[in-house]
């Protein structure tokens, strides 16, 4: 039967009541009228139709559409017989409302019934699988789609591309994508969003260009995604091209443009985009506020927030979050109290993110009392709240109190995460004894975060700062992966111990491991050369930094090199280096050189340096 024929047969079986109730249910679904739907549900019970699979499926759709999954499930389980359509309705409803694991669990229950799984249900389950990140199940679903012949459906194939892309499985995603008989904007959008999530951004841009070459017009969602890729990769050139060719003025797109320019360091251009919007909506106001926060422009945040107030547009939690973060940047306690009072007065709804940011703001303003006041008034405390408190205590020099708060956290319902261990390891460094740090390390070894990279880096740093390079090496060796921070921390530790042989060894190993050194790495190398008086090695590393790795020297790099050359008695070479550096650095470098001239009693070089300083 066709669907229409099936409806007619089902209605004849149910008598004259159904033709009147069914249209009413359909109107309720169209208008999302849950109250009338509930009254219809009572009527169905009255007429003995409450177990009817066909009418029940419509009720499931209505309740789910209105966000009442509990009522939808109640109807589903009450049906006399669950059909493919009722299973599809309940599974799709859970997937659409983000209840991914529940949707997958329902699918597993459906599979036991041996009912036919239609393409609509499969798409819903693939979507849930993509969000849940269950890659093994995704492969099983792909197999089911192939066995049932659904892999020929463009909707199913696009969902497969989306699932694999969201899980970062680009080989599988591209394999399905390349077998599509006719790729559409949805196919491209699915793959692009995956590259934006997992990188590299250049692949998202490549696909964006390809889809236009194939005659497709990207929608606002795809354009915004590609702008996010430009933001992540700091590709301002492509972002500008998209900006210049985009004809749509959708608020979502404008916000993405503001974010892109801000991420690429051009906050002036971001403001230009904002100012060209005739009637900015809440999303665009918030995008501009967060852009200023990102660049530490607190005064601009305050002025823009005031301007937003004058428009009469109601701010949301995101708006106040930007205001509080701007207060953190200033470090001004009086200003922080004003911001806090205004936030509490204007936004009285509980918001965990805001509470956490208020704690952080007072920590940045060095007010531990206010930190505790906000924490004590926070009704819902998650592990993040505890982490912010522990970090605040550490930041304000109270390592012992930070560890006491950690003990309090363990007694509460919150379970420590990687952020907690990072915070308490840093807190242990505030104590005179290394014992607490070792105890934390022992506890950590029994947890699931023992191999976590960020935690491992913090442990290496702790042992390095304690001068325990053997322990630092043990942690380093047992980490499953290492990044530039791991290597640099170890290099720094051996530099402090004047072990240039180890510094050189680990620097070479780092390069062989494919990890690219950064400016901090080279500063550690130059410091080691300076301490050991290794002028030739220092010159070599400074040249490598600039020419091989294209890292622009900072004031610290220049000062270290000037000091190294002067210690080696090469005052003329030190002067030449000062002439080549940016003028903003030169006065500080000359003071360093003058200090070395005094230490080495070189009056001639010192006099020349002094004249250049006062001129």
Automatic annotation (TrEMBL):
- What PROSITE patterns does the record tag this protein with? PPR
What Gene3D superfamilies does the record tag this protein with? Tetratricopeptide repeat domain (1.25.40.10)
PPR repeats at which positions? Answer: 184-218, 281-315, 382-416, 483-517
Cross-referenced Pfam families: PPR, PPR_2
Question: Origin, by domain of life?
Answer: Eukaryota
Q: Which UniProt keywords apply?
A: Repeat
Specify the protein name.
Answer: Pentatricopeptide repeat-containing protein
Specify the species.
Adiantum capillus-veneris
């Amino acid at each position: 039967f066709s669907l229409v024929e099936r409806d007619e047969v089902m209605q004849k079986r149910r008598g004259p009541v159904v033709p009147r109730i069914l249209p009413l249910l359909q109107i309720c679904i169209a208008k999302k009228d849950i109250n009338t739907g509930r009254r219809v549900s009572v009527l169905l019970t009255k007429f003995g139709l409450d177990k009817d699979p066909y009418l029940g499926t419509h009720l499931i759709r209505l309740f789910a559409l209105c966000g009442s999954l509990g009522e939808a499930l109640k109807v589903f389980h009450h049906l006399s017989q669950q059909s493919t359509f009722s299973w599809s309705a309940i599974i799709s409803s859970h997937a659409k409302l983000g209840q991914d694991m529940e949707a997958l669990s329902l699918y597993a229950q459906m599979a036991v019934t041996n009912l036919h799984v239609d393409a609509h249900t499969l798409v819903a389950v693939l979507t849930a699988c993509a969000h849940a990140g269950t890659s093994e199940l995704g492969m099983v679903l792909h197999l089911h789609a192939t066995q049932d012949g659904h892999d020929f459906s463009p909707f199913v194939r696009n969902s497969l591309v989306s699932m694999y892309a969201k899980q970062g499985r680009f080989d599988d995603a591209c394999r399905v994508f390349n077998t599509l008989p006719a790729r559409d904007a949805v196919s491209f959008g699915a793959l692009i969003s995956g590259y934006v999530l997992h990188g590299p951004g250049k692949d998202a841009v490549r696909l964006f260009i390809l889809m236009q070459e194939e005659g497709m017009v990207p929608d606002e969602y795809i354009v915004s995604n590609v702008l996010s890729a430009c933001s992540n990769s700091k590709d301002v050139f492509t972002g500008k091209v998209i900006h210049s060719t985009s004809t749509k003025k959708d608020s979502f797109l404008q916000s993405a443009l503001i974010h892109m320019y801000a991420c690429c360091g051009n906050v002036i251009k971001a403001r230009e985009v904002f100012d060209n919007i005739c009637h900015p909506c809440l999303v665009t106001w918030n995008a501009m506020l967060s852009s200023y926060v990102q660049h530490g422009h607190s005064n601009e945040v305050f002025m823009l927030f005031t301007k937003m107030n004058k428009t009469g547009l109601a701010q949301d939690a995101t708006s106040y979050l930007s205001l509080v973060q701007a207060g953190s940047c200033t470090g001004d306690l009086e200003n922080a109290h004003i911001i806090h009072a205004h936030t509490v007065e204007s936004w009285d709804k509980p918001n965990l993110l805001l509470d956490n940011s208020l704690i952080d703001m007072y920590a940045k303003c060095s007010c531990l009392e206010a930190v505790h006041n906000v924490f004590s008034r926070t009704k819902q405390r998650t592990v993040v709240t505890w982490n912010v408190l522990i970090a605040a205590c550490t930041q304000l020099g109270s390592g012992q109190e930070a560890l006491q708060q950690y003990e309090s956290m363990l007694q509460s319902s919150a379970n420590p995460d990687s952020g907690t261990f990072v915070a308490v390891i840093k807190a242990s460094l505030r104590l005179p004894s290394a014992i607490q740090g070792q105890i934390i390390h022992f506890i950590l070894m029994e947890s699931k975060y023992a191999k976590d990279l960020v935690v491992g880096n913090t442990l290496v740093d702790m042992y390095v700062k304690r001068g325990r390079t053997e322990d630092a090496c043990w942690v380093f060796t047992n980490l499953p992966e290492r990044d530039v921070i791991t290597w640099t921390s170890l290099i720094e530790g051996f530099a402090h111990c004047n072990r240039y042989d180890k510094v050189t060894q680990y620097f070479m190993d780092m390069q062989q491991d494919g990890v690219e050194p950064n400016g901090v790495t080279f500063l550690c190398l130059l410091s080691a050369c300076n301490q050991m008086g290794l002028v030739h090695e220092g010159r070599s590393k400074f040249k490598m930094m600039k020419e091989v790795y294209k890292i622009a020297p900072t004031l610290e790099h220049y000062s270290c090199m000037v000091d190294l050359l002067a210690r080696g008695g090469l005052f003329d070479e030190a002067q030449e280096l000062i002439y080549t550096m940016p003028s903003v650095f030169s006065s500080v470098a000359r003071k360093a050189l003058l200090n070395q001239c005094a230490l080495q009693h070189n009056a001639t070089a010192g006099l020349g340096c002094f004249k250049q300083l006062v001129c």
